Amino acid sequence: MQLNGLIFTLPKEIKLLIGAFIIVLSIGFYTGLLFVGETSSANPNGIEEQYLGNENDENATVMRFKKSEKEMLTLVHNHILSMSIIFFLIGLLVAITKLNNKFKLFLIIEPFVSVIFTFGGLYLLWTGILWTKYIVMFSGILMTLTFSLSILIVLKQLLQKR
After folding, report:
1. How confident is the model at residue 29 (pLDDT cuts 50, 70, 90)?
2. pTM reported for the whole predicted model
3. Three state DSSP letters for the chain
């Protein structure tokens, strides 16, 4: 079965379903990023403070405490499971677009690597391996860029005629 470009041959109803799914999923994804920006200042030190607390900083405007093991395991578990499903579905949609195969493979596989590095990195940061905050930041940015590029490609090709 030829998958490359299959998106162009889908019936209108399926294209509308995919488009609606992509838009609602994107709203949820980007709302999550707004939350990350609010809670961690979207920088490595903010990430560290969010998970390890700032109890020793007398000048802190908002007091934060180190997350418990239960909180960390819940966060890592929930994010890895939900994001693996999200990226599996996005990967299926990218698979049926018309793209260079190597680029397509990158867009399909990279988010799974970033999910492991981002949330595994957060857990390692929580255990005291402080340099992983940079890996968390980099992999989170790469995951977001890959997600954004994937949905733009899918939406663009949904709107194109054969």
Report:
1. very high
2. 0.91
3. CCCCCHHHHCCHHHHHHHHHHHHHHHHHHHHHHHHHHHHHCCCHHHHHHHHHECCCCCCCCCCCECCCHHHHHHHHHHHHHHHHHHHHHHHHHHHCCCCCHHHHHHHHHHHHHHHHHHHHHHHHHHCCCCCHHHHHHHHHHHHHHHHHHHHHHHHHHHHCCC
